[in-house]
Amino acid sequence: MADEAQGSRGSGWAVASFVLGLIGFLVALTAPIPFIPILSAFTWPLGLGAMIAGWAARRQARTTGDDASMPQARWGVGLGCLGWTIQFVTSAIKVLIAIGFIALLINNALNSTPTPSP
Q1: Centroid of chain to Cα 79
Q2: What is the pTM of this model?
Q3: What is the pLDDT of residues 45-54, one digit of tens each?
Q4: Alpha carbon of 92 to those of 67, 86, 88: distances in Å?
Q5: pLDDT class for 105, splitting at 50, 70, 90?
Q6: Strand intervals (E) in the chain
Q7: Count of alpha carbons within 13 angstroms of residue 13, beta-carbon side
Q8: Residue 118 in 3-state DSSP?
Q9: CA–CA dist 78, 15 (Å, integer)
Q10: Main-chain phi, psi angles of 35, to 5 degrees
């Protein structure tokens, strides 16, 4: 009975990892959409939760010998990491675009010549 409870707990961690990782990945796919910045901010905690739950599931599976939950745990960790990567890359691109736009505005302001009045 104790082995069964430990196995189900490890399986629960694996399912939680997979679900959090999948939701985090799907939310990260909204990151390039400019009008949904608040939603894509949830990628960071969802990905972290997926990674922590996946690592806990893998540790639990190693100690109990429950190999059935290992693939779900790996997928959860992988999807969490992939979501973080997508979020980081899209955030970096957005920052670079903003820096370029600001530099363009500054350049135009410094190089503009006033038109003489007639």
Answers
A1: 8
A2: 0.74
A3: 999 999 999 9
A4: 38, 10, 6
A5: very high
A6: none
A7: 24
A8: coil
A9: 13
A10: -95, 5
